[in-house]
Amino acid sequence: MQEPAITEDLIASHGFTPDEYAEVKNILGREPNYTEMGIFSAMWNEHCSYKSSKKWLRTLPTEGPQVICGPGENAGIVDIGDGQAVVFKMESHNHPSYIEPYQGAATGVGGILRDVFTMGARPIASMNALSFGEPSHHKTTQLVNGVVEGVGGYGNCFGVPCVGGEVRFHPAYNGNCLVNAFAAGLADADKIFYSAASGVGMPVVYLGAKTGRDGVGGATMASAEFDDTIEEKRPTVQVGDPFTEKRLMEATLELMATGAVISIQDMGAAGLTCSAVEMGDKGGLGVKLNLEDVPQREENMTAYEMMLSESQERMLMVLKPELEEEARAVFVKWDLDFAIVGETIEEDRFLIMHNGEMKADLPLSKLSSTAPEYDRPWVETPAAEAMDDVPEIDAIDALRALISSPNYAGKQWVYEQYDTSVMGDSVQTPGLGAGVIRVHGTDKLLAFTSDVTPRYVKANPVEGGKQAVAEAFRNLCSVGAKPLATTDNMNFGNPEKPEIMGQFVGAIKGIGAAVSALDMPIVSGNVSLYNETDGQAILPTPTIGAVGLIDHADDLIAGEVRDGHVAIVIGASQHEVGSHLGQSALLAEVFNREDGDAPAVDLDAELKAGLFIRENREMIRACSDLSDGGLALAAFEMAETAGVGVSLDPTTTAELYGEDQGRYLVACNFDQAEALFIAAGQAGVPVASVGSFGGDSVTMGGNSADLAELSAIYRTGFADAVA
Amino acid sequence: MKAAVIVFPGSNCDRDLKVALEAQGMDVTMVWHKDTTLPDGLDFVGIPGGFSFGDYLRCGAIAAQSPICRSVVDFANKGGYVFGVCNGFQILTETGLLPGALLRNAGLKYICKTVGLKVETADSAFTSEWAKGDVINVPIAHHDGNYNADADTLARLKAEDRIAFTYTDNPNGAADDIAGILSENRRVLGMMPHPERASDEGHGSVEGAPMFKGLAGLFETA
To answer: CA of A723: which chain B residue's CA is closest?
Structure first.
C-alpha cells in the first residue's frame, strides 16, 4: 500500500509545531516515513507526553511512608496494612465524551479499570466526576443521558461498584464536557506488576481483544481545541466492550498468578505504540514488533493504523518464555487472543516489521525521553476583589432555589443508573460525602471521595487548588477515615494562553501545599488540556480523588441522624459560624453572580479539625463537611437523608450560606454535646452549637417549610432540569 | 449441604452468592460454564447475577445454550434445588425452567436501588423463614427486570401460589409487580432482586439472609 507523502499539511495535522518536527528530523538524521511520523505524533502529543505540564507536576509532593508507588506507573499504590495495598487513579475522557457521549464515557471507565488491574489489583470501587454545560444548552440533556448511560453500561457489566462522584453544570462547559473516571483496586503489596521490561529476546505478547481501526489518532485529537469541525472527529472515538474487559481482567489476574508475567502494560492512548515504548523505555531495552502477528478484526490494516489504533480491552506483556503454555491456556480458557507479536532487543531501537517490510526504525529511548517539554509562559490570575454587598434573603427561599438546581439537587437519577452494591462490600453508597467499601474478607474499610469547586479555582487558583484537596480531606474525615493519598485529574483550557497556564500553575501550587500539609501525597494523575471550543475555555477543574482508611468497621461514622440530635459545627466559633459569600453557591444560583474571592483555606486548622472529628467519632452520630451552600445546605442534606427535620439558630445569610472552609456539621446525642464541647475546647478547635434535628420541618432564618415538600423538590430537581 | 455456583465469563455476582451461601455453612464449588457436568452429590445450584455473555443480545440467551446449562436443567428436572438471581433469573427463563421473560425496564434505564419486596408465599425452601405478607428490603440492579408472561401463565402462577415475591413499589414495570417466581415443583426460584447483597452486617441489611438460612436448614434436617 502506498503511504502518503510527508507534506506540511500532514505534519500539522499530526499536531507537530515546526520546531517539534525539526527535532524529529534531528533525532533521526532524516525525514521520518509516514508510520514513523504517526508514532512520534502519538508519543509527543500533549495527552501522552505531558509536555506543557511536566515541569509543574514535578513540584507535587508524591512521597510518604504509606506510598508504595507514586506517579509514573499505570496507577498509584498505597499501603493499607496487613500486606495489602490500594491501587488507584483518576483519568479524563473529556474530548471523546463530547463527540460521542456513550462510548466516550464507557471507554473512559474501561481505560481506568485497565490501569488498575494491569498492576495486579482487582478493581473494587469506581467514581466519576462529570461537568456539563448549562441545563438549557441544546447539547446538555443528550450529553448527560449519554455519559451517564455510558458510565453505567460499562461499569455495571464489568461489575465494579460505583461509590461516589460529582455532577456539575456551568455554561463554561457548554462546548467541552468533562468525564473524569476514578477506579481503585485491591492487591497484595508483594504481588504488584510494573511495566518495565527486562531480559533480551523475551517474547512480547499481545492479549485481549483484536485490533481495529477505531480510535486511530485519538490521543492527538484529545490534544487540540474543538471547533466547528468536531463532528468529523467521531471516528477517533473508541468503542467499548465491557464483557471483553471483564474477561481480560479475570484472565490477566489469573495469568499473573501463574508467574509468567515479566512486565505488563495496558494499551490505552496511542495503543500499541505507547505500551511498547513504555515497557522498553522503562527497562532500558529495544522492542521489535511483527505486525502481521497482531490479532486484527479488520482487513488490510496498515502499520500506521495498527500502531495508532486505540481499540479497547488490549494489553501488552513481556513473557517468561518457559511459561508460555500455561499463560496461553489462561487466555484460551477466557476465549481471548494471545499472540506473540515481537521480542525485546538489546539495541535501543523500536523496530516495526509488517509482512517482512520494515515500517519504522526509531531510537526507542528518544521517543519518550526526548519528548518536548515546555516552560509555557504564564501570568498570575489577578487577585479577585472582595465583595460584601450580598443582600439578606429568606433562608428557606434560598434553600428552595439551591435544591431545585441540578447542581445541588439530589443525584439519585444519576447514581441509580450505576451498580453501587455489586461485589457485596458496599458499606456507604453514593449520596452524601465519601463512599465506603469494605476490604473483602477483612474488618477494614476504604473511603473514597472526589472533589473540586471550579468557581473557586477560577477566582483564585491557589486557594481553589487547596480547597479541592481540603474538601476531599474533610469528606474522608467525615466518615471517620484517615486520608491516605490523592490522585489529581487536571482539566484546563489551552495551555498556550498565559492566563490559562497561570490557572494551571496556581492550582498546582495550591494542591501541592495542601497535600503536603494534610499528608495525602499525589500518587497518580492525569492532565487534560485544550478543553476549549472556539476559544472559550472551561472553568479550571483540577478534580481531586482521594482515598482514606478506616482500620475497623466499628470506627465508621455511619451518618445516622435521629430525632433529638444536637447540631454542632466543628471548625467555626459561636460568634462567627460563617461569613464568606464570595464565589458561593448562593451567589451563583440565587443572584446569578460569580464574584468575590474564593474562601481562604487554613491548612493547619483543616488538619486539626479533621483529626478532632476522627478522634471523637464515638460521640459523633453523623457528620458532613460544609462546602457548597454552607451550613444551610449541609443541614438540609443530613436531615433529608435521615427523613428528620432540622432547626438552625443562626439567622444571617452569611452564617447560613457562607462557604468558609474547615467546617463540619455533626449530629450528636443531647447528653454527649457537652462532652464534645469540652473535647473541642481542649483540642483548641472552634465549636458552635447551631440547632437541632427533629420534627418534620426545616426551620432556618426565621422561616420554615415542611421537610416533605423540600424533599420532593430535592429529589426531582435533577431529572426535571436535565433528564 | 453441597452447593454449586455456575460461573459464566461475564458473571459478576458469583463471589457475592458464594459468600452468602458459605455464611450459612454451605460447601460451595464454583463450576465453570464450559464444564459439562455438575459435581456429584449436589443439593443446590446457584446461577449468579452479572452479564453472562455480555448480554448484548437477549439477556441470558447465550448462557442458556452453554454446556453446563444442560446439566442444570437435568438437575432441576430430577428435583434439584436451583436458584437464579438477576441474570440467573433471565437464564432460567431462557432455559425454560421458569416461564415468562424479562423485558427491558419500563423506564428504559438501568436501576440500582433498594426496594421493598413482599413475600407472597412461605411455601418453598427459599421462603420458609418468612411469613406470607412479610416485607423485606433488598437491592435491585438491572436493566432488564420487567417480568412478563402471557395472561394464562400469570393466572396459573397466581393460582398455583408460585409468585414468590412482588415489589411494593414496582420499579421496572413487571407484570403483577412480580419480582420472583417458583417452578411447578417449587424447587426452582428465579428473582431479580439480590438477597445476597443484603445478607451480612456490612451490607447495612441482613433482610435477604433468611433465604439462604432456610435452604441450609432444609438440608440439615434432611
So the answer is: B109
Q: List, as ranges, residues 150-179 from B with C-beta within 8 Å of A.
A: none
Query: What's the pLDDT tens digit per position in A313-366?
Result: 999 999 999 999 999 999 999 999 999 999 999 999 999 999 999 999 999 999
Contact B203 A156 (CB under 8 A): no
Q: What is the pLDDT of residues A648-667, one digit of tens each?
A: 999 999 999 999 999 999 99
User: Where do the domains of chain A lie, and which CATH numbers do they carry?
Assistant: 1-64+194-372 (3.90.650.10), 558-723 (3.90.650.10)
Question: What's the CA gap between A495 and A52, in Å, rounded?
Answer: 7
Q: DSSP assignment, residue A202? A: P
Q: Is A243 in contact with B53 (Cβ distance < 8 A)?
A: yes
Q: How far is B105 from chain A (nearest CA, A)?
A: 12
How close A436 comes to chain B (CA, Å)?
10
B197 interface with A at CB cutoff 8 Å = yes
Strands in chain B per DSSP E: 2-7, 27-32, 44-47, 81-85, 101-103, 111-119, 135-142, 146-148, 163-167, 178-182, 188-191
Q: Does B14 touch chain A (CB under 8 A)?
A: no
Choose the mutation target among B53, B56, B110, B169 for the interface with A, i.e. most A CBs under 10 Å. B110
pLDDT in tens, A141-196: 999 999 999 999 999 999 999 999 999 999 999 999 999 999 999 999 999 999 99
**Which neighbouring-strand residues pair with A126?**
A162, A183
The helix or strand, by DSSP H or E, that contains position A157, with its residue range, turns out to be helix A140-158
The answer, for B23 touching chain A at a CB cutoff of 8 Å, is no
Domain span at B212: 2-221
Question: B10 and A157 in contact by Cβ < 8 A?
Answer: yes
> In the annotation, is A47 catalytic?
yes
Q: Which residues contact A86 (CB under 8 A, 6 or more apart)?
A: A77, A78, A80, A121, A184, A185, A186, A187, A446, A484, A547
The answer to whether the Cβ–Cβ distance between A243 and B10 falls below 8 Å is: yes
Nearest to A159 among B50, B111, B139 (CB): B50
Which DSSP symbol is given to A523?
Answer: E
Report the 10 Å Cβ neighbour count for A2: 5
Nearest to B51 among A243, A415, A553 (CB): A243
A29: Cβ contacts below 8 Å, ≥ 6 apart: none
Query: Chain B residues with CB inside 8 Å of A244's CB?
Result: 54
Per the listing, cell 535501543 goes with: A348
Give first-to-last CA distance, chain A, whole Å.
Answer: 48
Total number of residues shown for chain B: 222
CATH number (domain holding residue B89):
3.40.50.880
Q: Supply the pTM of this predicted model.
A: 0.96
CA distance A92 to A98: 12
Beta strand B178-182 with B163-167: parallel, antiparallel or unpaired?
antiparallel
A467 inside 8 A of chain B by CB = no
Answer whether B181's CB lies under 8 Å from B98's CB. Answer: yes
Domain count, chain B: 1
A670 in contact with B, Cβ within 8 Å: no
Angle separating helix axes A395-404 and A707-722, nearest 10 degrees = 40
- Provide the H-helix boundaries in A485-602: 498-517, 585-590
Q: Angle formed by the axes of helices B87-95 and B67-77, to 10°?
A: 80
A157 touches chain B (CB under 8 A): yes
Show which residues of B are catalytic.
Answer: 86, 194, 196
The answer to whether A136 is a known ligand-binding residue is: no
Which residue has better confidence, A226 or B6?
Answer: B6
Q: CA A581 to CA A630: how far, in whole Å?
A: 9
The answer to whether residue B222 scores a pLDDT higher than 50 is no
Residues in a beta bridge with B101? B148
Q: Stretch B63-74: mean pLDDT, rounded?
A: 96
